[in-house]
């Protein structure tokens, strides 16, 4: 499916699961190399950046977690062909950020408004990237809320249940970091090499995008550090609980062991066993066992073992 938007003299062609026929039509219209057009019809596992005479071709992947329709393990790919007066994006699943940006353009086109803070060159490319990074910020905020919820549950005595939760959220953030780390080199190359093709305004626009990227990168790293500390805290609380359990079991064992020993001794029906002829032997033994138990409990409490 192809959607076309026009804004500030630029044209944005957004392609979702484009067919070879659709890509061939776009290739002829905008002078795209056949190899590039072929790349736009299928997903690519790694990012890429190519500079051509009149346009730039780049592939970027954007992580997503809860707010995603991704078919590829929460990894959303967007292919960009950046021309002087056009932008082509190709994607392979629904990306809410691009849908939202398209709606903004439609509204602004109807109202005749230009609310962009970017320079007048490559507004669409800068706008699309910033919308994608804004969506990524929203995902990180959701992760931060989840982390706060985990923290609250840890201090409510649910340390054991939170072990898996912490591991899952850490894995998600590590995936975010792995994917976004690859953006930095591409953005730096776009800033330096794109200037030669599109001029100074393009380079200045990329500077703003890099600032957004650096904020995201810092947020991811700080959240990972917080989760490491949270895991350490959770493990400490779990260890403390386990130590308390072991201590209580030890105290119970120290109480039960002498009682069990007495019971075993008097269970031996051998000659010369004391009290065996005494009609009150049972109550004497029970009284002795209770006394020993009380003495043991008193000692444990005195030493603050209970």
What is the secondary structure topology, with strand pairs?
Elements: E1 2-7, E2 10-16, H1 20-30, H2 34-39, E3 48-51, E4 55-63, E5 75-83, E6 86-91, H3 96-111, H4 123-154, H5 159-198, H6 200-267, H7 281-302
Parallel strand pairs: 2-6
Antiparallel strand pairs: 1-2, 3-4, 4-5, 5-6
Helix pairs in contact: 3-4, 4-5, 4-6, 5-6, 6-7
What does this structure look like?
With 306 residues, the chain is of the alpha+beta class. The protein has two domains: 2-238, CorA soluble domain-like (Beta Polymerase, domain 2, 2-Layer Sandwich); 244-302, Methane Monooxygenase Hydroxylase, Chain G, domain 1, CATH 1.20.58. It is built from seven helices and six strands; from the N terminus they run ββααββββααααα. It has helices at residues 20-30, 34-39, 96-111, 123-154, 159-198, 200-267, 281-302, and strands at residues 2-7, 10-16, 48-51, 55-63, 75-83, 86-91. The protein has a six-stranded mixed sheet, covered by helices on one side. The longest helix has 68 residues, at 200-267. The protein is rod-shaped. The chain starts with a strand and ends with a helix. Mean pLDDT is 82; it is low at 115-120.
Short description:
The chain has 306 residues and is α+β, with helices and mostly antiparallel strands. The chain contains seven helices and six strands, in the order ββααββββααααα.
**Straight-line N-to-C gap:** 71 Å
H-E order: EEHHEEEEHHHHH
- Stretches where pLDDT is under 50 for at least 5 consecutive residues are 115-120
Might you state the CATH topology name of the largest domain?
Beta Polymerase, domain 2
What count of helical segments does DSSP give?
Answer: 7
Number of strands: 6
Approximate strand percentage: 5-15%
Give the CATH H-level superfamily of the largest domain.
CorA soluble domain-like
Radius of gyration over alpha carbons? 34 Å
